Amino acid sequence: xxxxxxxxxxxxxxxxxxxxxxxxxxxxxxxxxxxxxxxxxxxxxxxxxxxxxxxxxxxxxxxxxxxxxxxxxxxxxxxxxxxxxxxxxxxxxxxxxxxxxxxxxxxxxxxxxxxxxxxxxxxxxxxxxxxxxxxxxxxxxxxxxxxxxxxxxxxxxxxxxxxxxxxxxxxxxxxxxxxxxxxxxxxxxxxxxxxxxxxxxxxxxxxxxxxxxxxxxxxxxxxxxxxxxxxxxxxxxxxxxxxxxxxxxxxxxxxxxxxxxxxxxxxxxxxxxxxxxxxxxxxxxxxxxxxxxxxxxxxxxxxxxxxxxxxxxxxxxxxxxxxxxxxxxxxxxxxxxxxxxxxxxxxxxxxxxxxxxxxxxxxxxxxxxxxxxxxxxxxxxxxxxxxxxxxxxxxxxxxxxxxxxxxxxxxxxxxxxxxxxxxxxxxxxxxxxxxxxxxxxxxxxxxxxxxxxxxxxxxxxxxxxxxxxxxxxxx
Length: 475
Hints:
Blueprint: H1 13-27, E1 35-36, H2 39-46, H3 50-62, E2 66-69, E3 73-76, H4 97-101, E4 117-118, H5 131-147, H6 159-172, E5 183-185, H7 187-199, E6 205-210, H8 214-222, E7 226-233, E8 236-237, E9 246-251, H9 265-278, E10 281-285, H10 301-304, E11 310-315, E12 327-330, H11 333-347, H12 352-363, H13 366-389, E13 397-400, E14 407-412, H14 418-427, E15 430-431, E16 433-434, E17 447-451, H15 457-474
Parallel strand pairs: 4-15, 6-7, 6-9, 9-10, 10-11
Antiparallel strand pairs: 1-3, 2-3, 5-12, 7-8, 11-12, 13-14, 14-17, 16-17
């Protein structure tokens, strides 16, 4: 019989023939038991060497698609009739109901589609990053990699980086730890995932701030936990409303996400006392607490913890840039062994190349210099934002003045809605983002989150002047 095979070009002839024959068998166009032409005849039909067709037949024979009957010929293997013929694809492999029901909590604006004047939160200004010192650190890491032998490394991370993080936290965040206590992760999100894995069983209760950080909620929900929202007020999390059955509490005490107020010292002490009495663990997410602009820094929960209750989570996404995907955990000693097992199972360890570069960046002092420079720039942007929010925009917006961080929230006045303001601003090239999506279980307040990490002072001035025009047009 003749077999229809189309060859393109003069390269990979055996591969082209193999793929088309295999597809014909799998699709049922060549039925089980059907005789194929000899390798000599097929080579003649296709004007290729017999070695090419021999190689193809040998591969299909070894994979079980063909059967050779000595003295009789080569046939499509029996049993392949179980493969459906010309039937529509039925997607029988499906995720569990839990994963199908999860919202797209990690959604971000499509890359490259952001407006010219963008107040997106959680991003940094890479134009201000010291790339020349960073390049030297990358070169150091490359030399280090070239000298070393190929091997898998410690799931906890490279010793040099863990030492750098430990020193940085002790000096800048008053979090005292040995370098052995630090576990390096792929960003804060993996830190939350690992902590959820080792502390939660399906059905366990997790308490979260309301409003709160949707990716954290999604992480705990994906672990099978029941997430209960606990409201915040001017002092932060309402500790008196925490559910007694909570196994885990997630909190952002330095800069409540998204509203911005810090957790008061009285509430911090009350939370630690509550956790001691109930046996719950606490995740302290210090996602951008390095940038504190008002008053003396409050003691971290980790610093106040005397009972091994607090897992401190940090990230380089806000201090350097998000693409690095490097974060860290300083967990209670009782969780360390389980976290290392979980880290090894998930991805074994984070990139040693990136870790070596960041370690050199910290230990050479370039990280501290960068923080001092960028701190002044972010402070100036925050002050400019507040000048407008308390001045020309004060008729429509009420800022929730944060003490720290690289974003601030302003509540809308006079019955305005987020959607109408965001849509009108978008037409003027200004990217705004609402806070209603951060509410899970209560009626959301209408407000705007102004991220100022990735927008310059000049752009802020232009954007807020345009926003004032937008508000006037909506009156």
